[in-house]
């Protein structure tokens, strides 16, 4: 018997990848599956970004870079944050990593462990709870309520802090709900956190550009008094349709940068060099394709919300951000898991059970609208037929 580390028994997973696998198997067996499960833009990476990576390879950028990322890329991030949010950040506080997930992993490793409590959104991105449990820390859910537009109450979150709390994770715009935390609540949260300087915050802002109805883009970086406890995660996966490139970054408190750099060196040395050049081109080049993608997501958002509300037993709020909608399906009489299986196997539509995002996701399904209007229309027609 191999002696596998017992902590790994507590490591969870992300159901979207399992559903993707099942959907691909069904497709190979000849079924036409419409995938509204996976969370990735159905657009190609803009051509000028691809060209920058190809050029970097042709120009001979084949070696390692600094573990935190090449300076020009970190400077481009700083400039981008300044343009978008008028914040002053030093390139020394930026650590570039392969995607959004490594920042999550490192933050939870740093602040986890037995005897600690970590607050995280529920329903929320499943990797938070998985990693918290893996480190032995106690996961404390921040319940996101449908009745509050899946936003959170700063007062309630602050009241959940105990002596054991080491980290609070927030995610806005949210996966899976599409909820956005409004500026008032963020103001209250940031102000309250000033009283807890020994509690770190991981603000997952990977969907920060995907925000609708001209709503203001806010970031916790805009609150300088909590900067020494804030880790702000963002990346290229969603904004530039680059999920497969594996490129992300975080702004870290200065004190933690040496530790995170050591984690990078122990884990991956540095991000693929050509990908880093692509990242520069993405930030510095034309934004027209990203803007057009977001416009299309906005149109689909209107369409999918309206259509979902016309399915018997479904009730759906129009999401304020990201590219997910999270209808309440409890009136259909189906559990989330049953609906997920039924829709995949009978209707050929891949969606994700709300429970994949935590216990508070029971009674919901996540639909990604990173798919064409035609496919969304057909998928919802198939689901309607299936439950009638
Ligand atoms: N954070 C959230 C909220 C996400 O939904 C995702 C991906 O779905 C990530 C982070 C991870 O992004 P990446 O694919 O860049 O690792």
List the helices and strands and how they pair.
Layout: H1 15-28, E1 34-35, H2 47-58, H3 71-85, E2 94-97, H4 101-111, E3 117-122, H5 126-135, E4 138-143, H6 154-159, E5 165-171, H7 183-193, E6 200-204, E7 230-235, E8 248-251, H8 257-267, H9 273-284, H10 288-309, E9 324-325, H11 336-345, E10 349-350, E11 352-353, E12 365-368, H12 373-387
Mean pLDDT: 96
Structural class: alpha/beta
SS element count, helices: 12
Radius of gyration, in Å, reads 21 Å
**Oligomer description:** single chain
SS elements, strand count = 12
**Main β-sheet, spatial strand arrangement:** 2-8-7-6-5-3-4
How would you characterize the overall build of this protein?
The protein is of the alpha/beta class. The model has no long low-confidence stretch (mean pLDDT 96). It has a seven-stranded mixed β-sheet, sandwiched between helices. A three-stranded antiparallel β-sheet has the order 9-12-11. A two-stranded parallel sheet has the order 1-10. Helix 4 runs parallel beside helix 5 (126-135) and helix 10 (288-309) runs parallel beside helix 12. The chain is globular, with a radius of gyration of 21 Å. The relative contact order is 0.17. It has twelve helices and twelve strands.
């Amino acid at each position: 018997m191999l002696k596998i580390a017992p902590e790994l028994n507590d490591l969870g997973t992300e159901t979207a990848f399992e559903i993707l696998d099942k959907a691909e198997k069904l497709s190979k067996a000849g079924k036409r599956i419409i995938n509204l499960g996976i969370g990735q833009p159905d657009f190609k990476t803009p051509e000028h970004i691809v060209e920058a990576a190809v050029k970097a390879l042709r120009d001979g950028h084949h070696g390692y870079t600094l573990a935190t990322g090449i300076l020009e890329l970190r400077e481009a991030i700083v400039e981008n944050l300044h343009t978008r949010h008028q914040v002053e950040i030093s390139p020394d506080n930026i650590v570039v990593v392969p995607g959004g997930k490594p920042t999550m992993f490192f933050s939870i490793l740093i602040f986890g462990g037995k005897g600690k409590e970590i607050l995280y959104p529920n329903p929320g991105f499943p990797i938070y709870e998985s990693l918290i449990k893996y480190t032995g820390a106690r996961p404390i859910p921040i319940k996101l309520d449908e009745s509050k537009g899946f936003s959170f109450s700063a007062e309630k979150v602050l009241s959940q802090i105990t002596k054991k709390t080491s980290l609070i994770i927030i995610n806005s715009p949210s996966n899976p709900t599409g909820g956005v935390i409004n500026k008032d609540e963020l103001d209250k949260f940031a102000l309250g956190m000033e009283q807890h300087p020994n509690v770190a915050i991981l603000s997952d802002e990977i969907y920060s550009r995907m925000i609708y109805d001209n709503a203001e883009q806010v970031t916790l970086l805009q609150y300088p008094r909590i900067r020494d406890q804030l880790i702000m995660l963002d990346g290229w996966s969603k904004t530039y349709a680059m999920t497969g490139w594996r490129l992300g970054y975080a702004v870290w408190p200065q004190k933690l940068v040496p530790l995170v750099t050591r984690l990078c060196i122990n884990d991956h040395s540095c991000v693929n060099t050509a990908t880093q050049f692509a990242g520069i081109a993405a930030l510095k080049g034309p934004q027209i394709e990203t803007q057009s993608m977001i416009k299309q997501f906005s149109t689909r958002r209107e369409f999918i919300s309206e259509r979902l509300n016309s399915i018997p037993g479904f009730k759906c709020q129009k999401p304020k951000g990201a590219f997910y909608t999270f209808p309440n399906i409890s009136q259909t009489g189906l559990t989330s898991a049953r609906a997920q299986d039924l829709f995949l196997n009978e209707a050929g539509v891949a969606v994700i059970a709300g429970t994949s995002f935590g216990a508070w996701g029971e009674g919901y399904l996540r639909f990604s609208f990173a798919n064409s209007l035609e496919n969304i229309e057909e998928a919802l027609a198939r689901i309607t037929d299936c439950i009638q």
